[in-house]
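Regression test case RT-17, inverse folding.

Input:
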């Protein structure tokens, strides 16, 4: 897992991935099988990530492409020549005591039971509109509201870190202002009640507040690979901000 500072980030669009007839058939078959196993899956538009490089002038340059969710199933297809990493945003939402908010993915999602920061895959903008740091910030604020009920304005989110996992997937992480722990739980409870009244379950069916990577052992279930190193960095920065 790689971590980078996110204060300077430029996004560049590249042509969509080109699939051979064999890869396309394999992708469609794998996607159809995945939908049969989980009918909640939706093949909507998504921005995939094809590169992340250092640049002296711009800091980090991220290359992205327009695709749909079915492209991601190629990662599990033996012999596939295209394996598209994902691009996602997440929000580090601290409580006022320094603990960080994490959520568990609901049973109907693609990763049931997995713990992660609030966030989600990035959608490509309409033609003619840029995908830039401001667009990612707005998307992160929307994901935070939809998953936790926290109504933090996009302008209050600060670019914090960029993560890159072993499979090449890239996450752009933002920091939100601290909120009282009780308020965070109340907002999620209100969201959950509203969703259940409509016969739905929120994407994050449970929230927890954790102080460091050691607290992950108390969570039942797996967690995303970036969570432990991000928690380590958060604990250090929070301690430094608090002072002696």
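Golden output:
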């Amino acid at each position: 897992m790689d971590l980078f500072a996110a204060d300077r980030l430029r996004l560049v669009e590249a042509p969509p991935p080109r699939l051979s007839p064999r890869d396309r058939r394999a992708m469609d078959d794998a996607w159809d099988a995945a939908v049969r196993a989980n009918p909640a899956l939706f093949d909507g538009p998504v921005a995939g990530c094809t590169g992340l490089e250092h640049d002296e002038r711009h800091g980090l340059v991220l290359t992205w492409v327009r695709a749909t969710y079915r492209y991601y199933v190629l990662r599990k297809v033996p012999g596939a020549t295209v394996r598209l990493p994902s691009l996602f945003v997440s929000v580090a939402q601290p409580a006022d005591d320094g603990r960080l908010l994490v959520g568990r993915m609901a049973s109907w999602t693609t990763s049931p039971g997995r713990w992660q920061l609030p966030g989600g895959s990035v959608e490509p903008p309409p033609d003619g509109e840029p995908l830039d740091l401001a667009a990612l910030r707005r998307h992160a604020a929307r994901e935070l509201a939809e998953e936790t009920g926290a109504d933090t304005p996009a302008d209050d989110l600060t670019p914090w870190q960029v993560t890159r996992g072993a499979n090449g997937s890239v996450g752009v992480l933002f920091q939100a202002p601290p909120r009282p722990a009780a308020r965070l739980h109340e907002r999620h409870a209100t969201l959950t009640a509203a969703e259940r009244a409509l016969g739905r379950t929120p994407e994050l069916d449970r929230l927890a507040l954790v102080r460091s990577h050691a607290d992950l052992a108390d969570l039942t279930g797996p967690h995303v690979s970036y969570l432990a190193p991000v928690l380590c960095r958060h604990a250090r920065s929070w301690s430094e901000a608090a002072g002696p």
